[in-house]
From TrEMBL:
It comes from Massilia mucilaginosa. Residues 28-95 form the BON domain. Coiled coil: none annotated. This is BON domain-containing protein. Pfam families: BON.
Length: 95
């Protein structure tokens, strides 16, 4: 019986490690998204509701509408400055 339990534990350990890695990535991505949104929200000239932020594996994707090219560039700079961001892709459009 103990032998079966050990074998089951050995079989399950790698699966649990992979699940933990995925969960960790999701948590990290959600933290990055929250920080980027907070930084954008703090900028008075950026309309935070008009910029959508998503993060996957450290890559931040920005989309939405802003009033000027300078605003779009500022949103990208803010996103790049957040810890954990590996790159930023922007689909922000100027109205």
């Amino acid at each position: 019986m103990a032998d079966k339990t050990e074998r089951a534990a050995d079989t399950m350990a790698p699966k649990m490690d992979r699940a933990a890695e995925k969960t960790g990535a999701v948590v990290a991505d959600s933290v990055i998204t929250t920080k980027v949104k907070a930084d954008i929200f703090k900028e008075p000239e950026l309309k935070s509701m008009a910029i959508h932020v998503e993060t996957e594996k450290g890559v931040v994707m920005l989309s939405g509408f802003v009033d000027s090219k300078a605003d779009a560039e500022k949103a990208v700079r803010l996103a790049k400055s957040v810890d954990g961001v590996t790159s930023v892709k922007s689909a922000i459009k100027v109205k």
